[in-house]
Amino acid sequence: MSSSNLILAWILILAAFPAAGQWGGQLRLALRNDPRTFDPLLVDDSAGETIRYLTGGVLVRLNRVTQKLEPELAKIWKISNGGRRLTLDLRENIVFSDGTPFTADDVAFTIRRMMDPSLHSPTGDSFRSSAGSVSVSIPKRNSVVIDFPAPVASLERLLDQVVIQSAKAPQERAVLGPFRIADHRPGQFVELRRNPNYWKKNSNGRRLPYLDSVRLDILGNKDTEMLRFSRGELHIMEGLDADSYDRLRNKQGITALNAGATTDVEMFWFNQAGKAPINAAKRSWFQSRQFRQAVSLAINREDMIRLVYRGYAKQASGPVPSSSVWFNRKLQRTRYNSQQALRLLNSAGFQLRDSRLYDKQGNAVAFSLITNAGNKTRLRLASLIQDDLKKIGIDVNITTLDFPSLLERTGKTLDYDACLLGLVNVDPDPNAQMNVWLSSAVNHQWNPAQKVPATEWEAEIDKLMRVQASAATHQIRKQAFDRVQEIVAQESPFIYLVNRDALGALTPALRNISPASLRPHFYWNIEHLSLNAGEKGTHVAAATVR
Amino acid sequence: MLILAHNAIKAIGRIAFRVGMRLPMVLFLTSVLVCIAPGFDSDERQIDARLSTESIQSLRQLRAQNRNPLTAFIQFVGGAVQGDLGYSSTFNRPVWELLSERYPATFRAVGVGAFTGWAVAVLLASCVTLFPGFALRGSSTSIAGLLLCVPSALLGFMAIVLQSSVASAMSCVVFSRLFLQMNTLFDKASAQPHVMAAEAMGLTRRALFRWHIAGPSTPQMIVLGASSISIALGAAVPLEVICDSPGLGQLAWKATLGRDLSVLLGVTLIIAALNSVAAATTDIANKVLREQAS
Amino acid sequence: MRILRRFAIGFLLVVSLSSVAPQIFTPSSYDTQHRRQPNEAPGPTFLLGTDDLGRDRFARLLYGARTSLLLAPAAALLATAIAAIAGVVAASITELQRPLFYAVDVIISTPLLFLLLVVRALLPLDTSAIISVSILFALLGLLGWASGVRLFAAATQRLADSDFTIQAQASGCPPSRLILMQFLPGLIPTMFAQFCVFVPGFVMAEANLSMLGLGVSEPLPSLGNLMSDLLNYSAVLEQPWLLAPAILLFGITGSLHLLVPKVD
Asked: Is residue C136 part of a domain?
């Protein structure tokens, strides 16, 4: 058995059976921004999500490694009535961090508040599969029944995001998670201290978590975070780029880990909106399936993975990564082939003359590609796309815009040609992407907010997404979403590029680390993590989890 | 004593008047520029795939209701008079709370940085004049030139690497921008015919410098002192962003990215007030010096 | 000192020539991607190595210098000229001093960055990189003059209080002639010094503004965007040739400093 496989095996064993750790210590991480809110139902930024994860108690938890659902505050759950009814049996003898008992009333309070349309909770919106109100009842002590007006796809998985609030006390004081908010200095740090009443215990019956506290320093700058991590002032660094990862791999006293391909995907799309203020020639190119397919063929994704990500990425074939249970295994990977791209363009009436591509009307094919400023990785991807398309005679002008300007163009004025962005998939479930695939949705990027589907294939996607949203079984959902992926691969409204790997670095003093491709990659099992404060750091060879 | 106190009160009154005249125009222009800037009513949360269409529309409406710059300006000024500087959509907190938490870090860095940069520029330029010779002139010009060519963000980063403060990076920025002017100032004064004549007649370099170089250059040195504050305030944004210092510069940067008009007006209010006070003080001081000289 | 001045002039001539005709110094283009040779160390083929997309760093340095050194000095000249004229007018014509200083204080305090965003938004997306960066530098020149006005005003005031000015006025010299023949020439050292500060300042400003999408677009290089690599200090320690743009800019700024006239 090779050494990396051995390490992998150990990591998987540890995931199943966390070893007893040392008690005490403060884990130090970084947040990119101040959390906008501590209200778990209103969290909409990554900093807030981190705090929510570390302090919130949920009914059901998705194990980030096995991707299976595990009981938490709900020991049993049942879905019935065609996906409209959720029945929960709650654990008993659990108390909040302030000592008040956890009861069914708290679950009912949370669900009612979450589903209040005036709150505009992003978590609540995920449950809204149709108009109509949600009713919550408590048939007996420690049992809750929630009735939805229409089936909610993947209902139990969504509960992973629902943090139960106390009906009696504010969130800052009463939590059910492993830590509670102890101090917040805006712009500087958030400190969490152990919840003395946390319900989970270790194998010896002692109340978790092992750590005394977690300090999240607010560091907006990646380079500063890297410097502080190198100095030992931080214990975990997530979201490393390939350059930093390679640099840290070779350093003594640091464990660099690759948790495998993330669900995040880099992609670009052409503006196909009929009302977009672009000239007719461009509109006809962008609306041509052959044009989009040819552009996709002309892009060398392997070079992107090699040059931009240094091998720490996988080619993306669709909206979900190949490691996902939702991935359509029948999909063929798009292989770089500029000759085939040219043949496809010829068949659509384009001609290559003097190294420039012309359409049927004699217009030189050129378009602008916008992307957000300040993202070096994306800029490199754009440069590679520009260079690849130049080889087939297409002139691409790259324009970087600050994010609000970019959003205005892609969402409001529709004054752009093509856009390169990334999709952050918190949940790989297709239902989480409803507001991208439905043609009427405002986030249907290539042609948003359609009153009527503009094309037959978009109408088919609408139908399929509704089928999977209301289907009772996973098999039906998978079939429907497989077909969606086939249509997307054929029509190429999004030209998918790569799924990057989750790269991180840790201090070797951390115990029970179990890297996962889903967020949070390295501390999803925070209650089992421990710090061996007195131990000297020793270099561990970089391990890869697939 | 009474006359001094009277003059001081008069000067403070004049400064306050000048600041009061400038602030409304600055705030109005800021309001106009931010409202017409692209992306004003865009919110990053709109591309959250989880949000329903109704939630996204509600976000857009919230942003769009502040689009009129005149209304936004009047609301801000009206609120400011009552102590309410509005609410930040980016940070989800009252603006006055954000400003009161963050101004000490910036004031400290700007105060120390501007003064140190200016003082070191004066000191080095004085030494170069007092002790003419290529070694000192060449090395100090090289240091100033090198610091000019290094991005402020990198200076900030070096401050972190060396575990120093934002103020030290700021003083480098200020020094690099003032030294050459200070040097030129003293060189010009040294080249005056009466100074050269006095030197030829045996007056010491120190006396020459004190009475005929530094003295007449005082008004311009004061101007450079005032501009050191503007330079330091300008450098606050990249330095605080890089050093993760929770000051007004970092606040302004995040507010710019989020098109947060309330925060931008609040930060501009403070920066404009500081700049105006510095400029007004310079003008009054120079006027007094001229009156005394004549 | 004379030798150094000659060296500075020679250096600036070489840099100017390389900016105007970089193809004399390198046959490579700044945008050709040698994808099989990324992150190469300096060698005979690539004098400063290659970047992560396999582009010749030396070629990018020369073409980047062309972008920055043609545009930044032009913007600096514009800003210096406006500041000098405004300063002289403020010091010479008492009625105009207050409104001018008022305008200066307002301009310094207003976040004119948003004006740059507005102008960028008005430009079509397919505007070529060179045109959009030229417009950016022109705006920097038109907006960046305010910080120097008071300095020029104080310097002019000093000239106005000098004996030769009083003598000229007593001899009946009109104010316009005084400004043109005495004040403006007398400000040349100050103007040159201010110009030397503006040039690297505008180069840096372009780099900082690229964070908001206002800088030079790919694949066109500029000294500013080449220097953004310096923020990765571990990379700089391993690849010291990344300092080349900063060294070039230092050489240019230093040479300009050496050419600052010392006397009126």
From this structure: yes
